[in-house]
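Structure, all two chains, one model.
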Amino acid sequence: MPGITREEVAHLARLARLELKDEELDHFAGQLDDIIGAVARVSEVADQDVPPTSHPLPLTNVMRPDVVRPSLTPEQALSGAPAQEQQRFKVPQILGEE
Amino acid sequence: MADLIKLTAAEIAAKIAAGEVTAVEVTEAHLARIEAVDEKVHAFLHVDREGALAQARAVDAKRERGEKLGPLAGVPLALKDIFTTEGVPTTVGSKILEGWLPPYDATLTKKLKAADVVILGKTNMDEFAMGSSTENSAYGPTGNPWDLTRIPGGSGGGSSAALAAYEAPLAIGTDTGGSIRQPAAVTGTVGVKPTYGAVSRYGMVAFSSSLDQGGPCARTVLDAALLHEVIAGHDELDSTSIDAPVPPVVEAARNGDVKGMRIGVVKEFSGEGYQAGVMQRFNESVELLRELGAEIVEISCPSFDMALAAYYLIAPSECSSNLARFDAMRYGLRVGDDGTRSAEDVTALTREAGFGPEVKRRVMLGTYALSSGYYDAYYGSAQKVRTLITRDFEKAFEQVDVLVSPTTPTTAFPIGERADDPMAMYLADLCTIPTNLAGNAAMSLPCGLAPEDGLPVGLQIIAPAMADDRLYKVGAAVEAAFTARWGHPLLEEAPSL
């Protein structure tokens, strides 16, 4: 199993949308490496003919009739928003200049 | 008035129903206790004084009108800050939700209100329920009422500490890897992780969806059962909610008995890493079960040795996905939105500022385990281990009615002792995790004090899925026998605060 490098942690942080500080990168690299080292033994069972279990219950799609029911009002749904405008969530720019 | 806080939930409900005391008096007594001791304990993140008194007044009015009261009407409760409560702060112990007022109630919150339970406030917890010590709360740690310099367990340390400090007779916790049972064990209280799907997860902030389970915390087995019955049951708003009758847990708690039962001792839950005093109390509990008429069988569950490893891949993987919703767009904190930054940058800056180290660690661990190239080796393999653990349980329950083990390998450790060593911290959940992976039910109840440090030890009872009533039947028998032996409930040996 490969060790986790500082660069790898930086990459993971980008994927996870975490703007980590430099000292955090160093700190987490060591800790993640330790944790991964300790949990890697699960792969010892990987070759066996064992089906994976993703959930303790057999999951089935739960449907209900497509009927309009009372729900949150727009005011309620927006009540926790950091910014709002014209009954909508106001977000920073999503597309770049180009 | 001081006596009111020492009563059990069942006793309080009976006194209110009989008109010997009002719900307002009971609520005021607990609010006064919180005011007197919570500065030291820090079990609560938010005390909803007005809301609690309003609910209590409604119960008293209902009684005066001669209306039928529920079995826990007027009984105060401490609610883990992971369940949404309309108009009351819900932070999950995190800065990212500081100041958020949910516009709706969780199904569990609704059920408590409908049952006329008085919600005193929200209890402290490890951020997003990630932890075994309540040290990861963004709002500071909770102290263990047995020794305030020690951890009260985690992640539901606030809920269990509130019980042990007599700030509330009932509390609610959630158990993803042991977060109800482990705090119960180290605070000398009772905690139950019901069968996965027995209590709705709607409105409970998700950490690891296939493992998370809400459940009751109390000072007695009967109180836990009464609360279990109030919060369990099918919920159409939760697609993983079990659509089947709730097992007769209250009846079981009232008729504790182990005569003729076959009880399995899990061989893998002993040995290295287990504190001597914990093992001593556990072995005495097994002896007690034998004296009470149970047949004791040694059971081997070889895959349990890999449960911790599987858990620390599965839980972070699901958390990295669940916590993606904290994106600074729809609710919660937003940092760095100065008009020049993109939404993506604002999200990253907000998550950096809003999440604590344990949450970041797990989000990154999960991102790693799910990333292309590592998925099969880590997440995929962990799910295979999950299958093996489920099979171990199935085989065990062909031979025995319930399994028993210590709840935790050690008693409460000092605050700060394991803070910089994640793997040492994770060991606290060694005995509780297999049950979350398999989805079955388990309880922790006090079985004495470890001789070397005088701190509580928990006995864990594990039952098959949907056989939650067995936990209460065995638990009530053990509790009655121990209480008779000690001459009083264990908690009375705790130092006064």
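Residues 376-399 of chain B form the longest helix (24 residues).
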